[in-house]
Structures are given as structure tokens and as C-alpha cells.
From TrEMBL:
Pfam families: adh_short (PF00106). PANTHER family: OXIDOREDUCTASE, SHORT CHAIN DEHYDROGENASE/REDUCTASE FAMILY (AFU_ORTHOLOGUE AFUA_5G14000), OXIDOREDUCTASE, SHORT CHAIN DEHYDROGENASE_REDUCTASE FAMILY (AFU_ORTHOLOGUE AFUA_5G14000). This is NAD(P)-binding protein.
């Protein structure tokens, strides 16, 4: 484990969405995985799955995404992986902007201690947004306000810390994602099987891996992802 770069994945939900897919994919790319989320049981289950498959994953459960609860596990993560570079982080943030702000501060401070790697970067920080990041609607006032704020945070960080070879990006997920929760809510086998009308967590993470591997001569700040038949 000592030679592996560390990927911190924050926000896992039930363990069937984009965060879990990121953990599985980055494990295959040779990363040690630090899992941060509310709910100890799904966190442990995913860590056990990755470790049983030959990867390296450690759960760091938190009770909430407020700044205090974010700062505590991140200090633990840095101590646990002492000597290993924390390179890549995905933040699947809640509506409240305070948690992502505190998380970003910890992440960027860790990146600043890294050497520039062969791709010309000290680390990658990816925020996951939604359609509400750029468009409000009649029923999304609070959610959209938080997502707009998260997008602005990611843009500001990208402009400020790109000059230090830290790559910050924001992905807008425009469409329904196939997860355990969406399966139960929709109860629509035709929707589940039709990749033209819904997003796959694995497909999203392939795009995230592309962001992580981008050369510093051509960085993406914002990425739109939607299924082929999504109306937009």
C-alpha cells in the first residue's frame, strides 16, 4: 500500500451510485481508496467488497457534512496515509455549501504538499453537480441554490489553484442515474435496461477518469454528462 496514490471519495449514498463506481474504478487504476460518507454500514460494505477483490479501501464514516465533521476524518486520513500522496478526490456534495468548502480546503492543502506528477498536476478535485447547477425550477429552490453555489466554488477554486497545478473540475449530471434507489422508486425495467435514457454510474466514472488523466495542456473545468436521448 505504501507506494499507492490515495483517492478520497466523499459521498456514497447507498453504495450503488457514482461514488461507489468511482471507488471501484480507481481501485483498478492502482489507487488506495479512502471512503468518506454518512452511514457506517454501506461504507464498510463497499470497503469490504474492494478489499476482498484485492484492492485497498478504508472507511472513514462521518455523522454529517458540516465543517467540523469534515475536518475530523480528513485529519485522520492524512495521518493514516502518511507518506502517500493524496492525488484524486471526488466530492459528491450535499446541497449545503459549508461541507464542500471545508472539504475543499483540506483537499487543496494536501495537494499543495505533492510534487507535480507526470501529467503535470499535483492533484484532481472533481465536484458532482446536476441540472440544478445551472437552472432553477419551480420545485428546486433550495436544491438549486446549493448547486449553483457549489458550481461557483469549483470555478473559483479552478481559477485560483490551477496556477499551482491543481486541477479542479465540475461535472453536471443531466438525467436519471441507475442506482438501487432509482430502481426502487421507478420500478420500470424498461428504463433500467435502456442506456439511451438513463446514466450509468460506471459510465460517469469513465468520464471522471478522463478528467483525472488529462494533460495540463488541455484541462476541462466543466463537463456535461447526459444519456443519448435526454431532452435538453
Amino acid at each position: 500500500m505504501a507506494n499507492k496514490p490515495v483517492a478520497v471519495i466523499a459521498g456514497l449514498g447507498s453504495g450503488s451510485g457514482t461514488g461507489a463506481a468511482a471507488a471501484r474504478l480507481l481501485t483498478k487504476e492502482g489507487y488506495a481508496i479512502a471512503l468518506v460518507a454518512r452511514g457506517a454500514d454501506p461504507l464498510k460494505a463497499l470497503a469490504d467488497e474492494i478489499n476482498a477483490a484485492g484492492g485497498t479501501a478504508t472507511p472513514f464514516p462521518i455523522s454529517s457534512y458540516n465543517p467540523t465533521d469534515i475536518n475530523t476524518p480528513y485529519a485522520t486520513i492524512r495521518a493514516y496515509y502518511q507518506g502517500q500522496p493524496i492525488r484524486d478526490v471526488q466530492a459528491v456534495a450535499q446541497t449545503n455549501i459549508e461541507g464542500p468548502f471545508a472539504f475543499s480546503k483540506n483537499v487543496i492543502q494536501a495537494f499543495q504538499s505533492n510534487q507535480v506528477d507526470e501529467k503535470g498536476k499535483r492533484g484532481s478535485l472533481i465536484f458532482t453537480g446536476a441540472t440544478a447547477s445551472v437552472r432553477g425550477d419551480v420545485t428546486t429552490s433550495a436544491f438549486s441554490a446549493g448547486k449553483h453555489a457549489l458550481r461557483a466554488l469549483s470555478q473559483s477554486l479552478a481559477k485560483e489553484f490551477g496556477k499551482q497545478n491543481i486541477h479542479v473540475s465540475h461535472a453536471i449530471i443531466d438525467g436519471g442515474i441507475l442506482t438501487n434507489a432509482s430502481r426502487e422508486r421507478r420500478n420500470d425495467p424498461e428504463w433500467e435496461q435502456n442506456e439511451d435514457v438513463r446514466l450509468s454510474p460506471d459510465g460517469i466514472e469513465e468520464s471522471y477518469l478522463h478528467l483525472i488523466n488529462q494533460s495540463r495542456s488541455a484541462w476541462t473545468w466543466e463537463l456535461y454528462l447526459r444519456p443519448a436521448h435526454e431532452k435538453w
